[in-house]
Write a structure and sequence with these properties.
globular, cell membrane, 19 helices, two-stranded antiparallel ribbon, NCS2, transmembrane helix
């Protein structure tokens, strides 16, 4: 078995071990396992069966992550995307008033289009056309973004009507659970203790049990996964040629493409698997894994699949190959049958992992030449728009737009590739379509 894993994932060549990979996969699982709770909760507001959604979420995550592991051989997990599931539930089914079957059909069509775009290298061309300065900025923005997620999950940072964000309530146990985990993790890192992130999560969870915030599973910790029959392949073809279907599919394509691209570039760069321009040889395979994951996910009955930024926690723990993703997928398989045990870990206990990873990811900011306004400002906008809009995709949108506009207006149009011009125009159209849709809803 050891020789097979070595041959398949080239562990020695990637300077890693089976133990490191398996541990990294477990950590990635722990930092993203919340999706098993959150995704069914959001999508069930459309009328979908919540129990079936739990199983569909797990199965889609397992399939897509194994695709990334065995085909692309990258330490990146995939699952139904946050933000994309909200668009599915609250925009398509809520504001637009369509059924969840219509929304699933849109996701299926998006997946098929992505498979075609990947096959003809269109997605890979787009990724490679992203300017190097933005590829350096993307990990920084993602680092700040996932740090914000960690702080928010712990209640350290909360929303405020007056100031948008504010310091949380320090009387809440979740704050102290997160701080204890953060201190333990940091001290273990300083002492070069392997598995420090996982140990920090375990210590924080135990502290949560002591405080009474974490409930231990009862005797029935093993259960049969609920059936996905109520939502399996429930497509609706009546409106596939409508303008609204076009808008919905385009929006899904847009957000998924750049969320996935941003995550891939950020995580792969931090793993040291990308070249100096931010490109990596498995790019096409990674994008194909994402496209096929989305297509299969829609058949199973869940929203768009995307690469998960939480994969950076596994990379930070030493994950370098697809074996990390295999480990993560195995944990999701176990979660199907041991859900009470795995899901007892509170969000506050996984927050320190996200904060620590955020620290690691901002290091590439040193590569950016901020003295050149034509590159410094687009990089800055890429960085700040990610946490401030709560979207990796929006950071890339405004980074790319500002890069194209400033370069052209400054007479440096040769620095802008033809692909970037096309992408900038598409971004403008997307913004205009979004604005017109909002105005029409307001008028209605």
């Amino acid at each position: 078995m050891k020789n097979l894993l070595e041959k398949t994932f080239k562990l020695t060549e990637n300077k890693t071990t089976i133990r490191k990979e398996l541990l990294a996969g477990l950590i990635t699982f722990l930092t993203m396992s919340y999706i098993l709770i959150v995704n069914p909760s959001i999508l069930s507001t459309t009328g979908m069966d919540k129990d079936a959604l739990f199983t569909a979420t797990a199965l889609a995550t397992i399939f897509a992550t194994l695709m990334m592991a065995l085909y692309a051989k990258l330490p990146i997990a995939q699952a139904p995307g946050m933000g994309l599931n909200a668009f599915f539930a609250f925009t398509i089914c809520g504001v637009m008033g369509y059924s969840w079957q219509f929304a699933l059909t849109a996701v299926f069509i998006e997946g098929i289009i992505f498979i075609l775009l990947t096959f003809f290298n269109v997605r890979e061309l787009i990724v490679k056309s992203i300017p190097k300065v933005l590829k350096d900025a993307i990990p920084v923005g993602i680092g700040l973004f996932i740090t914000l997620i960690g702080l928010k999950n712990a209640g350290i940072v909360v929303s405020s009507p007056a100031t948008l964000v504010a310091l949380g309530d320090f009387s809440q146990h979740s704050v102290w659970i997160a701080f204890l985990g953060l201190i333990v993790t940091a001290v273990l890192f300083v002492r070069n203790i392997n598995g420090s992130i996982l140990i920090g999560i375990v210590v924080a969870t135990i502290f949560g049990i002591i405080l009474g915030d974490v409930t231990l599973p009862d005797s029935s910790i093993i259960s049969t996964p609920p059936s996905i029959a109520p939502i399996f392949a429930q497509f609706e073809w009546d409106h596939i040629l409508s303008f609204n279907m076009l808008v919905v599919v385009f929006t899904l394509l847009f957000v998924n493409l750049f969320d996935t691209v941003g995550t891939l570039i950020g995580v792969v760069s931090k793993a040291g698997l990308a070249d100096e321009d931010g490109n990596f040889p498995q790019m096409k395979k990674a994008l194909f894994s994402d496209a096929l994951g989305t297509t299969v996910g829609s058949i199973l009955g869940t929203s768009t699949i995307t690469a998960y930024v939480e994969s950076a926690s596994g990379v930070a723990s030493g994950g370098r190959t697809g074996l990390t993703s295999v480990s993560t997928a195995m944990m999701f398989i176990l979660a199907l049958f041991f859900a009470p045990l795995f899901l007892m870990v509170p969000a506050a206990a996984t927050s320190p992992a996200l904060i620590i990873v955020g620290l690691f990811m901002i290091s590439s900011v040193a590569k950016i030449n901020f003295s050149d306004m034509s590159e410094g400002l687009p990089a800055f906008l890429t960085i700040v728009f990610m946490p401030f809009t709560y979207s990796i995709a929006e950071g890339i949108v405004f980074g790319m737009l500002s890069f194209a506009f400033i370069k052209v207006c400054a007479g440096k149009y040769k620095d802008v590739s033809a692909t970037v011009y096309v992408i900038a125009i598409l971004f403008l159209l997307k913004i205009i379509l979004d604005a017109s849709h909002i105005m029409s809803n307001a008028a209605g």
